[in-house]
Amino acid sequence: MIKGDRWKYSLVVALLFIFSLMLGCPAKGQISQPQVVFDEAGKAIQENNYPEAKQKLKSLLEANYEHGAVQLNLGYIYAVQDSLGNAIYYFRQAELHPEYQQQAKEGLRYARQRLPNREVVLPKLPWQQAFDWAGRTIGSNGLMTATLLFLYITVFFTLLYWFTQFMHHKGTLYLIYGSLLITLLLAIGSIHIAHLQQKYDIGVLVSSEQPVYSESDRSSSIISSAYEGYSFTIDYSQSKPDENWYYVRLSNGMFGWIEGDGLRIYEV
To answer: Dihedral of CA 55/59/60/65: which sign?
Structure first.
């Protein structure tokens, strides 16, 4: 960031903080103590006292108060301080909250444009994008609920077909077969998404640079280098978190091992 422009970004952060406060923070009196801490953090941001603001916002997260406004404003603070890996981490967390999704996307775009080393991103296949979208927006539990709903519909029309005269025709059979097919597809989708969410997480590098190894050993060959802001898909079926080693898929499609130091992980 150009030094002379830092005050502009500080002003933008303060304004966005106030906007987030008006849009989504709980009303005063509803959750009194978190609101007081949030207000104090807002005052610290407006005074450009970012260390104090970060400390107060992180204390809310440590108390399991994972409100989107808290994560969004931590992202803004880290972006102003040029800690872009941490900014991306918190923007991605805020993106999980629908009311802050658009602001988080804008923050992500801003942070990634300022990365000195941009990663090469291999586009995902259409079916991967579909499962990603379903996992983020509906989730495995939502799909399982839809599965049960269509199962009940299938059973209901099957009983009508068996025990009533006016529903005993081919149209009802087609309806039953269609409902049964949708039930099976939803069940398969729900199971697959639950498997993906259990097996994989996403990590972002917050340190400046880190090597990616061919094996979980520093003496093995280095196959690539990862830089601040790079994202990884972490495969827990092969990772060794107890030894601080993670088996990852880079955004360019390569696979390798990376140490956990400097890696921040969040659930998909």
So the answer is: positive
Rounded distance, CA 116 to CA 118, Å? 6
pLDDT of residue 228 exceeding 90? yes
Task: Please name every residue paired with 3 in a beta bridge, in sequence order, or none if there are none.
Answer: none
Alpha-carbon span 256 to 239, nearest angstrom: 10
CB 247 within 8 A of CB 238: yes
Sequential DSSP letters for the chain? --GGGHHHHHHHHHHHHHHHHHHHSPPTTTSHHHHHHHHHHHHHHHTT-HHHHHHHHHHHHHTT---HHHHHHHHHHHHHTT-HHHHHHHHHHHTTSGGGHHHHHHHHHHHHHT-SSPPP-PPPPHHHHHHHHHHHHTHHHHHHHHHHHHHHHHHHHHHHHHH-STT-SHHHHHHHHHHHHHHHHHHHHHHHHHHHHHHEEEEEE-SSEEEEESSSSTTSPEEEEEETT-EEEEETTT-BGGGTEEEEEETTS-EEEEESTTEEEEE-
User: Both tokens of residue 117?
Assistant: 């080393």
Residues 113, 74, 235: CA angle, nearest 5 degrees: 70
Count of residues making up the chain = 268
Verdict on whether the full-model pTM lies above 0.85: no
Q: List, for residues 7-57, the tens digit of each pLDDT value.
A: 445 545 544 554 455 444 544 434 447 888 888 988 898 888 999 999 999
Name the residue among 57, 79, 83 with its Cα closest to residue 70: 57
pLDDT reading at 86 higher than 60: yes
**147-179 pLDDT, tens digit each:** 999 999 999 999 999 988 888 888 999 999 999
State both tokens at 121: 């991103």
